[in-house]
Amino acid sequence: NLWLPEPEPEETATNYRSKSIALLQTGSDAINRLLAERQRAVTQQELEREKAILAQKY
Question: What is the pTM assigned to this prediction?
């Protein structure tokens, strides 16, 4: 698997699992931050669009 490191020869399954989770969590956190920023931007765009529509009505 390209995402997971190779286990060390004497490494226990528990240690390998912990190491793999920590490695994947870092990427997951970064992706979640990017998605949250994108959602904020989309929400802001929607608000601005609604304001513009209301302004045109008056």
Answer: 0.65
